[in-house]
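Practice record 12: protein with copper (II) ion.
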Amino acid sequence: MPGIDRRTFLVGIGATGLLVAACGTGESPPASTTPTSRIPARPFDRRLPIPQLAPSTVEGGARHFSLRAAPGQTEIVAGTRTPTWGYNGSMLGPTLRARRGETVAVTVDNQLPETTTSHWHGMHLPARFDGGPHQPIEPGAQWRPTWTIDQPAASLWYHPHPHGATLRHVYRGLTGMFLIDDDQEPQGLPNTYGVDDIPVIIADYKFTPDGALDESDPDDIGLLGDTIATNGLAGAYFDASTRQLRMRLLNASVGRVYNLGFSDDRPFAMIASDGGLLEKPVSLTRIQLSPAERAEIVVQLNPGEPILLHAFPIDKWPDETFRERFGYTDSFDVLELRPDPQLRDAAPLPAVLATLPAAAVPADATRREFRLQRGTDANGKNNFKINDQLMDMNRIDFDVPEGSTEIWEVVGRDRVWPHNFHVHNAQFRVLDIAGQAPPPELAGWKDTVFIYPQTTVRVAVRFNGYGDSVNPFMYHCHLLFHEDTGMMGQFRVVAPGQPPPSVPGHSMPHG
Ligand code: C2O
Ligand code: CU
Ligand code: CU
């Protein structure tokens, strides 16, 4: 491949400033050996599909979108027709786009053979429209959530959340992006959708010999694949026509963690995390994304000089065997960028992107602890718990007073197992990781954060509005196998003066 020295993929994989916390003294793993990768190299010879911007109509003061979830067939791998599920197409879904202040209304039509839900990941909205496990859409039924967009510009996403089956629904292809725009966005960021501003939805798959998705799984982190797809296709390239390219990266994998960078180690600017713009662009050579995390990056391209988005090994893990088992030694190309021989120039990136409030908490803030830990079920299989409990649809774990800011302390209790932590309805700020201030890439708005083994991450989270003494929001590990097997809990946001919380163990309303 012109201009690319493949050796660079195997060297220069030094520590990248990503948080590796103290894993307990006396436990340090042996110096890492040459990384092994189970992901075969492949040609990048298929044009990257750009999910369509969902058409919408404005009526009765709301912007209306329609999503229809249905089965189809997709050539994730060229020449192989794979049964998949998609929204308005055979796989993935259109990109929904709305502005802050707009009211949106979505019709979700379930044409799947089983019950699904439609969750708006990262969105601040009323609990009854959140699309979690308490808002099932039966086969043949429609669901019509509506809410007013009330949060900064961000790259959010949507996916199903049926109780115990989220992994399967997401794995089969039900994933789309939801972009929010606002008037505060600075001038000068690339923002022509599909041209200099592209969604890059990354997921890994494995196949049975007849080309179906292989859903058989060891009970660990969930369906690690040997085929990497971007926007639903393996081996894709993007023809770039501009010197600056904004990539909205989404890790839509059910279990894989990606440590992304470029084949020639060129730096890129990270401009946004899960919930919106960072204060200023941050120059990085790697960005690590665990399942559900997003990063917006801007990379500078040279005319006629292709480069590859590459996933590097995860540098540090407390145990070499598990490091390999979890895919953290894998090293592989993700997407090729092919700049035209002539590129449109672009203005330099703005020096200031956003003003973020200090990640501070009131001195009397409520502190809650969430201990994430693997367990085993009656058959000796792994299951996953928070505070020693499995998810129970009929148990509300706690209530949060509307308007309060709390400190949530998330503790990775396992010695070698990864987790991450996602909270519905609110974007949070990381206060510290193993006692250290977060690195710049984790200092902005987040809704999902990776939890290294034996590490505590403290976040400040504000619950603003939408008090509802009935419908809960979820918090969970977004490694979907863990979520499905128990690593999830529920809380309500309760307004002052709302009826007192009902007795624990009462039955939840169930659509
Ligand atoms: Cu992507 Cu419960 O969320
Ligand atoms: Cu979510
Ligand atoms: Cu987990």
